[in-house]
Design goal:
The protein has a domain at 34-69. It has helices at residues 11-23, 39-51, 59-65. The chain has three helices and no strands. It has 69 residues and is mainly α. Helices cover 48% and strands 0% of the residues.
């Protein structure tokens, strides 16, 4: 039998898919998607944004200083 891998876009879609599978008596498993980012680092960045304590860099300044246009 074939298997289907679905990637819901939000928690609502995930919840509906789980309910549907249960109603149909289907076996399913869930797995957290892996991220290439360290969760601790991501939380630090998000907290800085909330606090308003961050610096924004204009990418044209960065690339222009390297000789790219």
């Amino acid at each position: 039998m074939e298997a289907i891998i679905l990637h819901p876009k939000n928690k609502t879609q995930l919840s509906l898919l789980k309910k549907l599978a249960k109603e149909m008596g289907m076996l399913f498993e869930t797995k957290e998607e892996e991220t290439p980012y360290n969760p601790e680092f991501v939380n630090r960045i998000l907290n800085k944004r909330k606090d308003g304590n961050f610096t924004t860099i204009d990418t044209t300044d960065v690339w222009g200083s390297l000789g790219f246009k």
